[in-house]
Structure formats: C-alpha cells, structure tokens
Design brief:
By secondary structure, the protein is of the alpha/beta class. It has one domain: Rossmann fold (3-Layer(aba) Sandwich), CATH 3.40.50.880. 24% of the residues lie in helices and 30% in strands. Strand 10 and strand 11 form a beta hairpin. Helix 1 packs across helix 5. It is globular and about 40 Å long.
C-alpha cells in the first residue's frame, strides 16, 4: 500500500507513523510518501490530509496542481483521512474566502469553532465503528455546522459533529495522529476489516 501524506504543511511525520502502525496491525506493508508536488497522488492508494493552516494548505495544493489530483483520487473511490485543517480544506463550504475548498465532504465548517490555541482540549470520544472511546485531541479545532444528506456523522461533541464519513473520505475536527491510537487510520483505510480494539 502506498500512502500519500499531503505535506505542503502540517503534521506530516505523525500521520506517517499512524498509517504505518495501522498497516502493520493488518499485516499490510505500507510505504509512506510525502506529497509536495503534482504527479505523486495518482500512484497513492490512500491519502492523508493533515492539520495545519487551512488557508496555506489550500493555496499550496491549488498552486502545485495537487488539488485536481486529490479530487480524482476520491472520484475513483480511493480513501482519504482529513484531520482538522484537512477537514476545512476538504469541505464543501469553509466559510472563509481565503480557502478554496475541494468539495469532497458535503459539510460546512466553522473554523476555530471551539476557540483559540488556549482553548484546546482532549476528550474520550465515542466514534461509530470503534468499540471503545477514542482519545481525541482538539487544537484550534473546527466544527461542522451543516451536514449533507449523504454524510454519516461518526462523532459529536456537545451535539456538534466532529467526525464524518462521506463516501471514501473520513474527516475529523481533531488530531488522531497525536495519540498512539491508530484506529481512526484503520477505519479510514481498512474499512472492510475488523478494526483492532
């Protein structure tokens, strides 16, 4: 399996470690490649869109020609895991003119919905598809304020969706790569197999 991490900005190394841990748990060899230029995504089986600064990520993936390749990846049914800023970039409506969203997830998003850096928090979060709660790390986290008909809500905080699935894309408002728990990467990339508890 070749896993591409969109590496124009954000938690690249952490996602690389998490997807490798998920693959190892399923006896699936994985090669992780960092995507900074066009031409890499078409060779990837799965993609990770990390957190970071959504305006910067959006600008760079469009400038480098990566955005079209990501859309084609999803159109072909290949999975994506998008986290925090990745959720914003993959949304239908980022509610920010500085972000040119990819429209891969039929949601609209409030950036920094849970406050600024000082308002970051952690929570034990029940998630659809996981047998036990996930330790979720929220840092300047967005929240989803509108969900399209075909979108499955996987988790909520105070009634607000913070993890969703839309076709082959799972998007979260939190940072699963900042824990030792690779079950979200399991859920995104090995959905046909039992997720390790």
């Amino acid at each position: 399996m070749q896993a591409g991490v969109i590496a124009v900005q954000g938690d690249v190394a952490e996602h690389a470690g998490a997807v490798q841990a998920a693959a190892t748990a399923h006896d699936e060899p994985a090669e992780v490649v960092e995507v900074r230029d066009s031409g890499v995504v078409p060779d990837c089986d799965v993609l990770l869109m990390p957190g970071g600064e959504s305006t910067t990520i959006s600008r760079l993936i469009h400038r480098e020609g990566i955005a079209t390749e990501i859309r084609e990846h999803v159109a072909s049914g290949k999975p994506v895991l998008a986290t925090c800023a990745g959720l914003i970039v993959c949304s239908r409506d980022a509610k920010d003119d500085r972000v040119d969203p990819l429209g891969l997830v039929d949601v609209s998003v409030d950036r920094n919905a849970f406050g600024r850096q000082k308002d970051s928090f952690e929570a034990k979060l029940p998630i659809e598809g996981l047998e036990s709660p996930f330790h979720a790390v929220f840092i300047r986290a967005p929240a989803i304020d509108a969900v399209g008909d075909g979108v499955e809500v996987l988790a909520r905080v105070d009634g607000r969706p913070v993890a969703v699935r839309d076709g082959p894309v799972i998007a979260t408002a939190f940072h699963p790569e900042l824990t030792d728990d690779s079950r979200l990467h399991d859920l995104a990339f090995f959905p046909e197999r039992e997720v390790i508890a």
